[in-house]
Amino acid sequence: METAIIIVNYRTPWHLKLCLESVFKFTENFHLIIVQNKPDRKSQRIVDDYKNRYPNTVEVITHDKNIGFVDGVNSAYESAIKYDRVCLLNSDTIVTKGWLNEMNAEMDANPNIVQISPDSNAFYPTPRLWRLVNKLPFGLKKLSKLQASIAPISSKDKHTYRKVEEFWYFPGGFCNVFKTAPFKHLGYFCDPNIVHGYWDDFDLAYYLRQFGEVGSTNNAYVFHFVNVTFNRISEDKQGMKDRLMQLNGLYVMDKWRERLTSDLHQINKDRLLEQSNHYVLQMVYQYFALTTVNPEFIEYIRTLPAKEIGEKFLK
After folding, report:
1. Which residue of 50, 51, 72, 215 shows the fewest CB atoms closer than 10 Å?
2. Are residues 80 and 4 in contact, defined by beta-carbon separation less than 8 angstroms?
3. What is the pTM of this model?
4. Same domain, 183 and 122
5. What pLDDT tens digit does each residue of the chain (315 aa) get?
6. Which domain holds residue 285?
């Protein structure tokens, strides 16, 4: 069974090259769709090279402007929906041996799984050495690639599949595999009302929970450099970034208001108190607080205020 892999790239040529090298070294039975958002020359050369070398495996979709992660993923919908499973893979990742086979094997063994993610360094605190490396100028920062081979942080538990029980936990947005059947009537994978790429991962998993279980497996491992594209945002747009994160979050909470209310009532109160600082629960509480104090706030959120900000943010 082939899996469609979607990679959205926006000016990350160095990371993209490492990602593609690892994908073609460690992956079997896949169709790769590379979405180029306003490609830079270096990224274009890399993508052209892989397209020429693997014309039957690589498909390229190019946009003359940066349309963001969500719209970038959705632009690959018509091609990817032909496959039973899709993998969303960030361009700032390095995959390892058996990564996709292991996730697919878990899904084959348990047909109730609708979405799964691998183990990754992104789930654990970054050691001090690599935090220092990440603060260096970009040329020296490239040493960070050594972490993927020298000291990748991973779970101590091996050969383990974990069902993600509580709704505020979900598969990693940088790499996850999901079944396409639940999307065949939608016409998209990521909600197009979510601007750019904040809260799309929570929304995707929350949608899929209606059709089965979501989880992760330590049998698969993907290294993630974390927020490479977002960290390229200029300082004058940081305020817009924070605003987009908040507005997207409020939109998603409003979208799932009834389900969230039901889920919250089913969670043990001590557990809710224990997890009250989790950022998803913080957004849930913020949404309900704002709409309780001012019911008109719901209508404001439903006008999709993030759209206007997003147009300026993505220029």
Report:
1. 51
2. yes
3. 0.94
4. yes
5. 799 999 999 999 999 999 999 999 999 999 999 999 999 999 999 999 999 999 999 999 999 999 999 999 999 999 999 999 999 999 999 999 999 999 999 999 999 999 999 999 988 888 888 778 777 777 667 777 888 888 788 888 877 899 999 999 999 899 999 999 999 999 999 999 999 889 999 999 999 999 999 999 999 999 998 765 655 555 566 788 889 999 999 999 999 999 999 999 999 999 999 999 999 999 999 999 999 999 999 999 999 999 988 888 877
6. 235-313
- Residue 21 near residue 101, CB atoms below 8 Å: no
- What would the two tokens of residue 90 be? 């960030």
Domain count across the chain: 2
Same domain, 172 and 270: no
Specify whether 102 is located in the same domain as 222.
yes
